[in-house]
Amino acid sequence: MMWNRNEQTICAISTPHGVGGIAVIRVSGPQALSISGRICKRLSKSLSNEETLQSHFQSHRAYFSEIHDLKGQKIDEAVVTYFAHGKSFTGEEVIEISCHGSPYITGQILDQLVQAGAKIAEPGEFTYRAFMNNKLDLVQAESVLSLIESRNKSAAKVALRQLEGHVSKEVEELISDLTWCLAHIEASIDFIEQGIEVVDTSELIHKLEKINGTLEKLLQSYESGRLIKDGIKVALLGEPNVGKSSLLNLLLQNDKAIVTPIAGTTRDVIDGEIIFDGMKYIISDTAGLRETQDEVEIIGIDRSRQEAEKADLLCFVFDATEKEWQRSLQMATEIQNSKKIFLLNKSDTVSADELYRIQDEISMSLGLSGAQEILATSAREATSRSHIFAAIKSAVGQFDYLDEAVISSSRQFEQAQYSFEMISKSVDELKNKTGAEFVALYLKEALLSLQKILGQVYDDQIMDRVFKEFCLGK
Ligand SMILES: Nc1nc2c(ncn2[C@@H]2O[C@H](COP(=O)(O)OP(=O)(O)OP(=O)(O)O)[C@@H](O)[C@H]2O)c(=O)[nH]1
Ligand SMILES: [Mg+2]
Protein backbone atom coordinates (compact mmCIF):
# COMPACT_ATOMS: atom_id res chain seq x y z
CA MET A 1 0.00 0.00 0.00
CA MET A 2 2.74 2.51 -0.68
CA TRP A 3 0.87 5.66 -1.55
CA ASN A 4 2.01 8.05 -4.15
CA ARG A 5 3.32 10.40 -1.55
CA ASN A 6 3.30 14.13 -1.60
CA GLU A 7 2.62 14.66 -5.27
CA GLN A 8 -1.14 14.52 -5.11
CA THR A 9 -3.44 16.58 -2.97
CA ILE A 10 -5.84 14.44 -0.96
CA CYS A 11 -9.17 15.20 0.67
CA ALA A 12 -11.61 13.45 3.01
CA ILE A 13 -14.34 14.07 5.55
CA SER A 14 -12.59 13.80 8.92
CA THR A 15 -15.66 13.82 11.16
CA PRO A 16 -18.04 10.85 11.57
CA HIS A 17 -20.32 10.28 8.65
CA GLY A 18 -23.88 11.34 9.29
CA VAL A 19 -25.72 14.38 10.49
CA GLY A 20 -23.94 16.74 12.90
CA GLY A 21 -23.70 20.39 13.90
CA ILE A 22 -20.58 20.75 11.81
CA ALA A 23 -18.41 18.47 9.70
CA VAL A 24 -14.74 18.92 8.87
CA ILE A 25 -13.29 18.26 5.44
CA ARG A 26 -9.54 18.07 5.31
CA VAL A 27 -7.46 18.84 2.21
CA SER A 28 -3.73 18.13 2.28
CA GLY A 29 -1.01 18.36 -0.34
CA PRO A 30 0.94 20.80 -2.47
CA GLN A 31 -2.22 22.22 -4.04
CA ALA A 32 -4.45 22.30 -0.99
CA LEU A 33 -4.76 26.07 -1.14
CA SER A 34 -5.23 26.45 -4.88
CA ILE A 35 -7.72 23.58 -5.15
CA SER A 36 -9.75 24.79 -2.17
CA GLY A 37 -9.54 28.27 -3.59
CA ARG A 38 -11.71 27.19 -6.50
CA ILE A 39 -14.67 26.59 -4.20
CA CYS A 40 -14.05 29.00 -1.30
CA LYS A 41 -15.05 32.56 -2.14
CA ARG A 42 -12.75 34.09 0.45
CA LEU A 43 -9.80 32.25 -1.11
CA SER A 44 -10.80 32.64 -4.74
CA LYS A 45 -10.77 36.41 -4.50
CA SER A 46 -7.03 36.23 -4.03
CA LEU A 47 -6.58 33.25 -6.31
CA SER A 48 -6.67 35.35 -9.43
CA ASN A 49 -3.25 36.57 -8.43
CA GLU A 50 -1.02 33.61 -7.44
CA GLU A 51 1.49 35.86 -5.72
CA THR A 52 -0.97 37.42 -3.34
CA LEU A 53 -2.65 34.12 -2.50
CA GLN A 54 -0.03 32.99 0.01
CA SER A 55 0.43 36.45 1.44
CA HIS A 56 -3.30 36.85 2.02
CA PHE A 57 -3.50 33.85 4.27
CA GLN A 58 -1.77 33.23 7.52
CA SER A 59 -1.09 29.77 8.85
CA HIS A 60 -3.33 28.60 11.73
CA ARG A 61 -5.93 31.24 11.00
CA ALA A 62 -9.58 30.63 10.33
CA TYR A 63 -11.48 32.50 7.63
CA PHE A 64 -15.21 32.72 7.15
CA SER A 65 -16.12 31.91 3.57
CA GLU A 66 -18.92 31.06 1.25
CA ILE A 67 -18.46 27.66 -0.41
CA HIS A 68 -19.65 27.30 -3.97
CA ASP A 69 -19.38 24.71 -6.72
CA LEU A 70 -17.08 25.11 -9.69
CA LYS A 71 -19.84 26.91 -11.57
CA GLY A 72 -20.27 29.43 -8.78
CA GLN A 73 -23.47 27.99 -7.29
CA LYS A 74 -23.48 28.46 -3.50
CA ILE A 75 -23.30 25.23 -1.42
CA ASP A 76 -22.75 26.42 2.14
CA GLU A 77 -21.15 28.95 4.46
CA ALA A 78 -18.13 27.64 6.29
CA VAL A 79 -15.03 28.37 8.33
CA VAL A 80 -11.83 27.61 6.47
CA THR A 81 -8.59 27.10 8.38
CA TYR A 82 -5.22 27.29 6.71
CA PHE A 83 -2.05 25.45 7.81
CA ALA A 84 1.08 26.27 5.88
CA HIS A 85 3.46 23.67 4.45
CA GLY A 86 5.58 22.27 7.29
CA LYS A 87 3.22 23.49 9.99
CA SER A 88 0.36 21.03 9.75
CA PHE A 89 -0.34 17.50 11.07
CA THR A 90 0.71 15.98 7.74
CA GLY A 91 3.58 18.39 7.24
CA GLU A 92 1.96 19.49 3.99
CA GLU A 93 -0.13 22.50 3.06
CA VAL A 94 -3.52 21.84 4.64
CA ILE A 95 -6.96 23.41 4.41
CA GLU A 96 -9.71 22.39 6.80
CA ILE A 97 -13.24 23.29 5.85
CA SER A 98 -15.71 23.30 8.75
CA CYS A 99 -19.09 23.25 7.06
CA HIS A 100 -22.60 22.37 8.20
CA GLY A 101 -22.82 18.71 9.11
CA SER A 102 -25.19 17.52 6.44
CA PRO A 103 -24.13 14.45 4.44
CA TYR A 104 -25.51 16.19 1.35
CA ILE A 105 -23.35 19.29 1.84
CA THR A 106 -20.18 17.38 2.72
CA GLY A 107 -20.77 15.10 -0.28
CA GLN A 108 -21.14 18.14 -2.56
CA ILE A 109 -18.00 19.82 -1.27
CA LEU A 110 -15.96 16.63 -1.56
CA ASP A 111 -17.24 16.14 -5.07
CA GLN A 112 -16.20 19.65 -6.10
CA LEU A 113 -12.76 19.23 -4.53
CA VAL A 114 -12.25 16.06 -6.57
CA GLN A 115 -13.41 17.82 -9.71
CA ALA A 116 -10.95 20.58 -8.95
CA GLY A 117 -8.10 18.06 -8.86
CA ALA A 118 -7.92 16.50 -5.38
CA LYS A 119 -7.97 12.74 -4.77
CA ILE A 120 -10.08 11.04 -2.08
CA ALA A 121 -7.69 9.97 0.70
CA GLU A 122 -7.27 6.31 1.61
CA PRO A 123 -7.96 5.37 5.24
CA GLY A 124 -4.96 6.48 7.31
CA GLU A 125 -3.36 8.40 4.45
CA PHE A 126 -3.13 11.69 6.38
CA THR A 127 -1.26 9.93 9.20
CA TYR A 128 0.85 8.07 6.64
CA ARG A 129 1.91 11.38 5.14
CA ALA A 130 2.66 12.75 8.60
CA PHE A 131 4.98 9.76 9.11
CA MET A 132 6.62 10.18 5.71
CA ASN A 133 7.22 13.86 6.45
CA ASN A 134 8.81 13.01 9.82
CA LYS A 135 6.01 14.60 11.81
CA LEU A 136 5.65 11.37 13.80
CA ASP A 137 7.29 7.98 14.11
CA LEU A 138 5.47 4.66 13.78
CA VAL A 139 4.77 4.26 17.50
CA GLN A 140 3.14 7.68 17.45
CA ALA A 141 1.20 6.83 14.28
CA GLU A 142 -0.13 3.72 16.04
CA SER A 143 -1.01 5.79 19.07
CA VAL A 144 -3.14 8.08 16.89
CA LEU A 145 -5.26 5.06 16.02
CA SER A 146 -5.39 3.91 19.65
CA LEU A 147 -6.43 7.37 20.74
CA ILE A 148 -9.26 7.49 18.21
CA GLU A 149 -10.40 4.07 19.34
CA SER A 150 -10.01 4.64 23.08
CA ARG A 151 -13.24 4.30 24.98
CA ASN A 152 -12.00 4.74 28.52
CA LYS A 153 -9.71 6.93 30.56
CA SER A 154 -6.80 4.49 30.96
CA ALA A 155 -6.70 3.58 27.27
CA ALA A 156 -6.76 7.23 26.28
CA LYS A 157 -4.00 8.01 28.77
CA VAL A 158 -1.69 5.28 27.46
CA ALA A 159 -2.31 6.37 23.85
CA LEU A 160 -1.71 10.01 24.69
CA ARG A 161 1.58 9.20 26.41
CA GLN A 162 2.69 7.30 23.31
CA LEU A 163 1.69 10.20 21.11
CA GLU A 164 3.72 12.53 23.31
CA GLY A 165 6.68 10.27 22.57
CA HIS A 166 7.33 8.45 25.86
CA VAL A 167 7.82 5.05 24.23
CA SER A 168 9.67 6.58 21.28
CA LYS A 169 12.14 8.33 23.57
CA GLU A 170 12.88 5.12 25.43
CA VAL A 171 13.37 3.15 22.22
CA GLU A 172 15.57 5.90 20.78
CA GLU A 173 17.83 5.69 23.81
CA LEU A 174 18.05 1.93 23.40
CA ILE A 175 18.96 2.38 19.74
CA SER A 176 21.70 4.80 20.63
CA ASP A 177 23.14 2.52 23.36
CA LEU A 178 22.97 -0.50 21.10
CA THR A 179 24.66 1.39 18.27
CA TRP A 180 27.51 2.20 20.65
CA CYS A 181 27.89 -1.49 21.54
CA LEU A 182 27.76 -2.57 17.92
CA ALA A 183 30.34 0.02 16.84
CA HIS A 184 32.76 -1.15 19.54
CA ILE A 185 32.27 -4.80 18.70
CA GLU A 186 32.88 -4.10 15.02
CA ALA A 187 35.97 -2.08 15.82
CA SER A 188 37.31 -4.88 17.97
CA ILE A 189 36.92 -7.32 15.07
CA ASP A 190 39.16 -5.06 12.99
CA PHE A 191 41.76 -4.51 15.67
CA ILE A 192 41.88 -7.96 17.20
CA GLU A 193 44.59 -9.18 14.84
CA GLN A 194 46.77 -6.34 16.00
CA GLY A 195 46.21 -7.38 19.59
CA ILE A 196 44.42 -4.16 20.54
CA GLU A 197 41.43 -4.46 22.85
CA VAL A 198 38.97 -1.75 21.89
CA VAL A 199 36.45 -2.34 24.61
CA ASP A 200 36.40 -4.24 27.85
CA THR A 201 34.13 -7.28 27.42
CA SER A 202 32.64 -6.99 30.89
CA GLU A 203 31.70 -3.38 30.20
CA LEU A 204 29.99 -4.45 26.99
CA ILE A 205 28.09 -7.23 28.75
CA HIS A 206 27.00 -4.78 31.41
CA LYS A 207 25.70 -2.32 28.82
CA LEU A 208 23.85 -5.01 26.88
CA GLU A 209 22.26 -6.40 30.02
CA LYS A 210 21.10 -2.92 30.92
CA ILE A 211 19.48 -2.53 27.49
CA ASN A 212 17.74 -5.86 27.96
CA GLY A 213 16.53 -4.78 31.41
CA THR A 214 14.73 -1.83 29.83
CA LEU A 215 13.41 -4.01 27.02
CA GLU A 216 12.10 -6.51 29.54
CA LYS A 217 10.15 -3.76 31.29
CA LEU A 218 8.69 -2.63 27.98
CA LEU A 219 7.72 -6.20 27.13
CA GLN A 220 6.02 -6.60 30.49
CA SER A 221 4.08 -3.39 29.93
CA TYR A 222 2.48 -4.94 26.84
CA GLU A 223 0.18 -7.21 28.82
CA SER A 224 -1.16 -4.26 30.80
CA GLY A 225 -1.27 -2.18 27.64
CA ARG A 226 -3.37 -4.83 25.93
CA LEU A 227 -5.73 -5.17 28.89
CA ILE A 228 -6.16 -1.42 29.10
CA LYS A 229 -6.87 -1.15 25.39
CA ASP A 230 -9.06 -4.23 24.90
CA GLY A 231 -10.55 -4.53 28.39
CA ILE A 232 -10.15 -7.20 31.08
CA LYS A 233 -12.07 -10.35 30.22
CA VAL A 234 -13.62 -11.87 33.32
CA ALA A 235 -15.63 -15.11 33.49
CA LEU A 236 -18.00 -15.84 36.36
CA LEU A 237 -17.90 -19.54 37.16
CA GLY A 238 -19.33 -21.79 39.82
CA GLU A 239 -22.00 -24.32 40.71
CA PRO A 240 -25.63 -23.67 39.73
CA ASN A 241 -27.61 -21.23 41.85
CA VAL A 242 -24.65 -19.58 43.64
CA GLY A 243 -25.62 -16.19 42.21
CA LYS A 244 -23.41 -15.77 39.12
CA SER A 245 -26.15 -14.18 37.02
CA SER A 246 -27.15 -11.94 39.93
CA LEU A 247 -23.52 -10.80 40.21
CA LEU A 248 -23.31 -10.15 36.47
CA ASN A 249 -26.37 -7.95 36.71
CA LEU A 250 -24.89 -6.12 39.68
CA LEU A 251 -21.57 -5.53 37.90
CA LEU A 252 -23.19 -4.40 34.65
CA GLN A 253 -25.94 -2.48 36.48
CA ASN A 254 -28.41 -3.97 34.12
CA ASP A 255 -30.82 -6.92 34.35
CA LYS A 256 -29.14 -8.66 31.47
CA ALA A 257 -29.22 -12.24 32.75
CA ILE A 258 -32.27 -14.14 33.98
CA VAL A 259 -32.14 -14.85 37.69
CA THR A 260 -34.34 -17.51 39.33
CA PRO A 261 -34.07 -19.74 42.40
CA ILE A 262 -34.00 -22.73 40.03
CA ALA A 263 -30.57 -24.31 39.63
CA GLY A 264 -29.56 -24.50 35.99
CA THR A 265 -31.22 -21.26 34.90
CA THR A 266 -28.39 -19.97 32.74
CA ARG A 267 -27.77 -22.17 29.74
CA ASP A 268 -25.65 -20.00 27.49
CA VAL A 269 -22.80 -17.55 27.95
CA ILE A 270 -24.10 -14.03 28.48
CA ASP A 271 -21.64 -11.17 28.46
CA GLY A 272 -21.51 -7.42 28.69
CA GLU A 273 -19.02 -4.56 28.77
CA ILE A 274 -18.71 -1.99 31.47
CA ILE A 275 -16.32 0.81 32.34
CA PHE A 276 -15.51 1.17 36.00
CA ASP A 277 -13.02 3.68 37.38
CA GLY A 278 -11.52 4.29 33.94
CA MET A 279 -10.95 0.61 33.13
CA LYS A 280 -12.91 -1.51 30.69
CA TYR A 281 -14.19 -4.94 31.75
CA ILE A 282 -15.90 -7.58 29.64
CA ILE A 283 -17.78 -9.84 32.01
CA SER A 284 -19.37 -13.12 31.10
CA ASP A 285 -21.88 -15.15 33.05
CA THR A 286 -21.85 -18.88 32.40
CA ALA A 287 -24.00 -21.94 32.99
CA GLY A 288 -23.53 -23.40 36.48
CA LEU A 289 -21.14 -26.34 36.51
CA ARG A 290 -22.63 -29.69 37.53
CA GLU A 291 -23.20 -33.28 36.38
CA THR A 292 -26.40 -33.33 34.36
CA GLN A 293 -28.30 -35.39 31.81
CA ASP A 294 -30.00 -32.35 30.30
CA GLU A 295 -28.78 -32.02 26.73
CA VAL A 296 -29.03 -28.23 26.59
CA GLU A 297 -27.34 -27.82 29.94
CA ILE A 298 -24.47 -30.11 28.89
CA ILE A 299 -23.75 -27.85 25.91
CA GLY A 300 -24.02 -24.81 28.19
CA ILE A 301 -21.51 -26.27 30.64
CA ASP A 302 -19.14 -27.04 27.80
CA ARG A 303 -19.38 -23.39 26.75
CA SER A 304 -18.65 -22.30 30.33
CA ARG A 305 -15.37 -24.19 30.17
CA GLN A 306 -14.46 -22.67 26.81
CA GLU A 307 -15.24 -19.21 28.18
CA ALA A 308 -12.97 -19.90 31.14
CA GLU A 309 -10.09 -20.57 28.77
CA LYS A 310 -10.55 -17.26 26.95
CA ALA A 311 -10.76 -15.16 30.09
CA ASP A 312 -7.95 -13.07 31.56
CA LEU A 313 -9.37 -13.80 34.99
CA LEU A 314 -11.81 -16.25 36.53
CA CYS A 315 -14.20 -15.22 39.27
CA PHE A 316 -15.06 -18.44 41.02
CA VAL A 317 -18.26 -18.07 43.03
CA PHE A 318 -19.14 -20.00 46.22
CA ASP A 319 -22.51 -19.92 47.97
CA ALA A 320 -22.54 -18.99 51.67
CA THR A 321 -25.91 -20.69 52.21
CA GLU A 322 -24.47 -24.10 51.33
CA LYS A 323 -23.34 -26.51 54.01
CA GLU A 324 -20.37 -27.97 52.18
CA TRP A 325 -18.26 -26.89 49.22
CA GLN A 326 -16.57 -30.13 48.24
CA ARG A 327 -17.81 -30.05 44.65
CA SER A 328 -17.13 -26.34 44.24
CA LEU A 329 -13.65 -26.72 45.65
CA GLN A 330 -12.90 -29.55 43.29
CA MET A 331 -14.08 -27.50 40.30
CA ALA A 332 -12.15 -24.46 41.40
CA THR A 333 -8.91 -26.41 41.42
CA GLU A 334 -9.73 -28.38 38.29
CA ILE A 335 -10.07 -25.34 36.06
CA GLN A 336 -6.57 -24.29 35.20
CA ASN A 337 -6.17 -20.64 34.51
CA SER A 338 -3.34 -18.38 35.51
CA LYS A 339 -5.47 -15.90 37.40
CA LYS A 340 -8.44 -16.52 39.68
CA ILE A 341 -10.30 -14.77 42.43
CA PHE A 342 -12.78 -16.40 44.79
CA LEU A 343 -16.08 -14.88 45.85
CA LEU A 344 -18.23 -16.09 48.70
CA ASN A 345 -21.64 -14.86 47.61
CA LYS A 346 -24.93 -14.44 49.51
CA SER A 347 -22.89 -13.12 52.44
CA ASP A 348 -26.02 -11.20 53.50
CA THR A 349 -27.61 -14.45 54.63
CA VAL A 350 -25.08 -15.47 57.29
CA SER A 351 -23.61 -13.87 60.41
CA ALA A 352 -20.18 -12.22 60.32
CA ASP A 353 -18.66 -14.99 62.46
CA GLU A 354 -20.06 -17.70 60.27
CA LEU A 355 -18.88 -15.86 57.19
CA TYR A 356 -15.34 -15.65 58.52
CA ARG A 357 -15.39 -19.35 59.41
CA ILE A 358 -16.44 -20.29 55.86
CA GLN A 359 -13.90 -17.95 54.27
CA ASP A 360 -11.19 -19.53 56.38
CA GLU A 361 -12.30 -23.05 55.54
CA ILE A 362 -12.42 -22.41 51.79
CA SER A 363 -9.11 -20.62 51.78
CA MET A 364 -7.46 -23.51 53.69
CA SER A 365 -8.89 -26.08 51.28
CA LEU A 366 -7.58 -24.11 48.32
CA GLY A 367 -4.18 -23.74 49.92
CA LEU A 368 -4.45 -19.96 50.10
CA SER A 369 -2.99 -17.73 52.78
CA GLY A 370 -6.17 -16.91 54.73
CA ALA A 371 -9.78 -15.77 54.96
CA GLN A 372 -8.98 -12.43 53.30
CA GLU A 373 -8.29 -14.30 50.04
CA ILE A 374 -12.00 -15.12 49.77
CA LEU A 375 -14.02 -12.02 49.04
CA ALA A 376 -17.41 -11.93 50.76
CA THR A 377 -20.01 -10.54 48.36
CA SER A 378 -23.72 -10.08 48.07
CA ALA A 379 -25.53 -9.49 44.82
CA ARG A 380 -28.06 -7.60 46.92
CA GLU A 381 -25.61 -5.03 48.25
CA ALA A 382 -24.35 -2.25 46.02
CA THR A 383 -21.00 -2.02 47.85
CA SER A 384 -20.02 -5.46 46.56
CA ARG A 385 -19.75 -4.00 43.10
CA SER A 386 -16.71 -1.81 43.76
CA HIS A 387 -15.14 -4.51 45.94
CA ILE A 388 -15.33 -7.03 43.11
CA PHE A 389 -13.89 -4.60 40.54
CA ALA A 390 -11.04 -3.72 42.89
CA ALA A 391 -10.27 -7.41 43.47
CA ILE A 392 -10.27 -8.10 39.72
CA LYS A 393 -8.00 -5.17 38.98
CA SER A 394 -5.46 -6.04 41.61
CA ALA A 395 -5.45 -9.74 40.69
CA VAL A 396 -4.91 -9.01 37.02
CA GLY A 397 -1.83 -6.94 37.52
CA GLN A 398 0.04 -3.77 37.87
CA PHE A 399 -1.62 -0.75 36.45
CA ASP A 400 0.17 1.84 38.54
CA TYR A 401 2.96 2.35 36.02
CA LEU A 402 0.58 3.91 33.52
CA ASP A 403 2.73 7.01 33.72
CA GLU A 404 5.68 5.12 32.30
CA ALA A 405 6.19 3.85 28.77
CA VAL A 406 3.57 1.25 27.89
CA ILE A 407 3.51 -0.57 24.56
CA SER A 408 0.13 -1.69 23.32
CA SER A 409 0.53 -2.99 19.80
CA SER A 410 1.46 -6.58 18.95
CA ARG A 411 3.77 -5.24 16.26
CA GLN A 412 5.83 -3.29 18.78
CA PHE A 413 5.84 -6.27 21.13
CA GLU A 414 7.10 -8.74 18.52
CA GLN A 415 9.95 -6.47 17.46
CA ALA A 416 10.96 -5.75 21.05
CA GLN A 417 10.81 -9.47 21.84
CA TYR A 418 13.08 -10.35 18.91
CA SER A 419 15.52 -7.65 19.86
CA PHE A 420 15.58 -8.97 23.43
CA GLU A 421 16.34 -12.51 22.22
CA MET A 422 19.13 -11.35 19.92
CA ILE A 423 20.76 -9.33 22.69
CA SER A 424 20.52 -12.31 25.08
CA LYS A 425 22.25 -14.46 22.48
CA SER A 426 25.03 -11.96 22.00
CA VAL A 427 25.57 -11.73 25.77
CA ASP A 428 25.91 -15.53 25.85
CA GLU A 429 28.45 -15.41 23.05
CA LEU A 430 30.43 -12.72 24.84
CA LYS A 431 30.42 -14.71 28.08
CA ASN A 432 31.54 -17.86 26.24
CA LYS A 433 34.17 -15.83 24.42
CA THR A 434 33.14 -17.22 21.04
CA GLY A 435 33.68 -15.14 17.94
CA ALA A 436 32.96 -11.42 17.95
CA GLU A 437 31.54 -11.85 14.44
CA PHE A 438 28.50 -13.65 15.84
CA VAL A 439 27.99 -11.01 18.47
CA ALA A 440 28.04 -8.33 15.78
CA LEU A 441 25.56 -10.31 13.70
CA TYR A 442 23.08 -10.68 16.56
CA LEU A 443 23.41 -7.06 17.59
CA LYS A 444 22.72 -5.91 14.05
CA GLU A 445 19.50 -7.92 14.07
CA ALA A 446 18.55 -6.49 17.46
CA LEU A 447 19.21 -2.96 16.25
CA LEU A 448 17.16 -3.48 13.11
CA SER A 449 14.19 -4.64 15.17
CA LEU A 450 14.34 -1.57 17.38
CA GLN A 451 14.55 0.67 14.33
CA LYS A 452 11.50 -1.05 12.89
CA ILE A 453 9.51 -0.23 16.03
CA LEU A 454 9.92 3.48 15.33
CA GLY A 455 9.79 3.09 11.55
CA GLN A 456 13.39 4.24 11.04
CA VAL A 457 13.48 1.15 8.85
CA TYR A 458 10.29 -0.02 7.17
CA ASP A 459 8.85 -2.03 4.33
CA ASP A 460 5.42 -2.59 2.75
CA GLN A 461 4.54 -5.27 5.27
CA ILE A 462 5.16 -2.96 8.23
CA MET A 463 3.27 -0.10 6.61
CA ASP A 464 0.30 -2.32 5.82
CA ARG A 465 0.15 -3.57 9.37
CA VAL A 466 0.21 -0.11 10.88
CA PHE A 467 -2.15 1.70 8.53
CA LYS A 468 -4.67 -0.94 7.47
CA GLU A 469 -6.88 -0.40 10.52
CA PHE A 470 -7.20 3.35 10.20
CA CYS A 471 -10.51 4.94 9.43
CA LEU A 472 -11.18 7.33 6.57
CA GLY A 473 -10.19 10.91 7.12
CA LYS A 474 -7.34 10.27 9.59
N1 LIG B 1 -29.70 -13.55 49.57
C1 LIG B 1 -29.07 -13.57 48.42
N2 LIG B 1 -29.60 -14.23 47.39
C2 LIG B 1 -28.93 -14.24 46.21
C3 LIG B 1 -27.70 -13.58 46.09
N3 LIG B 1 -27.26 -13.78 44.82
C4 LIG B 1 -28.19 -14.53 44.20
N4 LIG B 1 -29.19 -14.81 45.04
C5 LIG B 1 -30.38 -15.61 44.73
O1 LIG B 1 -29.93 -16.92 44.39
C6 LIG B 1 -30.77 -17.49 43.37
C7 LIG B 1 -29.89 -17.91 42.19
O2 LIG B 1 -29.31 -16.78 41.61
P1 LIG B 1 -28.72 -16.77 40.13
O3 LIG B 1 -28.07 -15.48 39.95
O4 LIG B 1 -29.75 -17.16 39.16
O5 LIG B 1 -27.67 -17.94 40.25
P2 LIG B 1 -26.73 -18.56 39.12
O6 LIG B 1 -25.43 -18.87 39.74
O7 LIG B 1 -26.71 -17.69 37.93
O8 LIG B 1 -27.46 -19.93 38.77
P3 LIG B 1 -27.44 -20.79 37.43
O9 LIG B 1 -27.70 -19.90 36.29
O10 LIG B 1 -28.46 -21.80 37.64
O11 LIG B 1 -26.07 -21.41 37.35
C8 LIG B 1 -31.77 -16.40 42.99
O12 LIG B 1 -32.95 -16.67 43.68
C9 LIG B 1 -31.12 -15.14 43.50
O13 LIG B 1 -32.07 -14.13 43.85
C10 LIG B 1 -27.16 -12.89 47.21
O14 LIG B 1 -26.08 -12.31 47.19
N5 LIG B 1 -27.90 -12.91 48.34
MG1 LIG C 1 -27.31 -17.99 36.06
TrEMBL record:
The keyword Metal-binding applies. Its cofactor is K(+). GO terms for molecular function: GTP binding; GTPase activity; metal ion binding. It comes from Pseudobdellovibrio exovorus JSS. InterPro entries: G_TrmE, GTP-bd, GTP-bd_TrmE_N, GTPase_MnmE, MnmE_dom2, MnmE_helical, P-loop_NTPase, Small_GTP-bd. It is found in: Cytoplasm. Pfam families: MMR_HSR1, MnmE_helical, TrmE_N. This is tRNA modification GTPase MnmE. It is an enzyme of class 3 (hydrolase). The gene is mnmE. Homodimer. Heterotetramer of two MnmE and two MnmG subunits. GTP binds at residues 241-246, 260-266, 285-288. One of its GO terms (biological process) is tRNA wobble uridine modification.
